[in-house]
């Protein structure tokens, strides 16, 4: 059996995906048993594909679950911490761009009334 | 019964007009922690977005059956199957896994950890089930 197409997996609902997962894991188990019993070379390569398929299904499952939670918390103030941007600890605590760009009223007026002038010399 | 002026005056004279302080009766000398309101948690966000699926489920417990000479002997003579099993699995989990995956009840299970770190489980089957049949059905004879 070839690699399963992830695009096909993504359109399946969660219940179906869990069933597919069980199928693949059963197959993996059978393949392992056959390997112990002494199998042909074809089976040995198949086991790799099945393992990867299991990983694909699990990936799609977690992605679906997480995106669902994300949409629940979209626009809210507090989201689960593993859905917030990871960056680095220091970056998360740093000033935001808007906070950095804030100016005092005094400075705003200065800049408005005395802007940096640029002159060009006529050649 | 409406109090007349005389009755209210009598009350005022005896008990005063302000109302009396009620002192709580203390039956012990110790001051114990008073019972206060305890609210349940209402978290603003769920801590973990999506809960992890079980890592050690029935498919992960049993790794592979053994078909060495001694294992074969065990199947024929003692009606037991020999499996390599995940190290973190315990006998209850092994029993459940065998039940779910191969539809066989285990009479008893003995485990040991091999010198190379892999757990080996001797799964004894009840007398009415033939281990050889089960091994054939699983496919590793």
Automatic annotation (TrEMBL), chain A:
Domain of life per record: Eukaryota
| InterPro entries on file | Ribosomal_uL29 (IPR001854), Ribosomal_uL29_CS (IPR018254), Ribosomal_uL29_euk (IPR045059), Ribosomal_uL29_sf (IPR036049)
Task: Read off the PANTHER family from this record.
Answer: 60S RIBOSOMAL PROTEIN L35 (PTHR45722), LARGE RIBOSOMAL SUBUNIT PROTEIN UL29-RELATED (PTHR45722:SF2)
Family indicated by similarity: Belongs to the universal ribosomal protein uL29 family.
**Annotated Gene Ontology MF terms?**
mRNA binding; structural constituent of ribosome
* Entry keywords, A to Z: Ribonucleoprotein, Ribosomal protein
- What is the protein name given in its UniProt record? 60S ribosomal protein L35, L29
- State the Gene Ontology BP annotations: maturation of LSU-rRNA from tricistronic rRNA transcript (SSU-rRNA, 5.8S rRNA, LSU-rRNA); translation
Q: Name one Pfam family in it.
A: Ribosomal_L29
Gene name as annotated: rpl35
Gene Ontology cellular-component terms listed? cytosolic large ribosomal subunit
From TrEMBL, chain B:
Q: Where is the Large ribosomal subunit protein uL23 N-terminal domain?
A: 3-52
Gene Ontology cellular component annotations, sorted alphabetically: ribonucleoprotein complex; ribosome
Question: According to the UniProt record, where is the region Disordered?
Answer: 1-20
Annotated GO biological processes are:
translation
- Entries under PANTHER family matching the protein: 60S RIBOSOMAL PROTEIN L23A
Q: Which UniProt keywords apply?
A: Ribonucleoprotein, Ribosomal protein, RNA-binding, rRNA-binding
UniProt-recorded name of the protein: 60S ribosomal protein L25
* InterPro entries hit by this protein: Nucleotide-bd_a/b_plait_sf, Ribosomal_uL23-like, Ribosomal_uL23/eL15/eS24_sf, Ribosomal_uL23_N
- Source organism of this protein record: Coemansia thaxteri
What family, per the record?
Answer: Belongs to the universal ribosomal protein uL23 family.
Could you confirm whether the keyword ATP-binding appears in this record? no
Quote any Pfam family the record assigns. Answer: Ribosomal_L23
Single GO MF descriptor: structural constituent of ribosome
Tell me yes or no: is Ribonucleoprotein among this UniProt entry's keywords. yes
The domain of life is Eukaryota
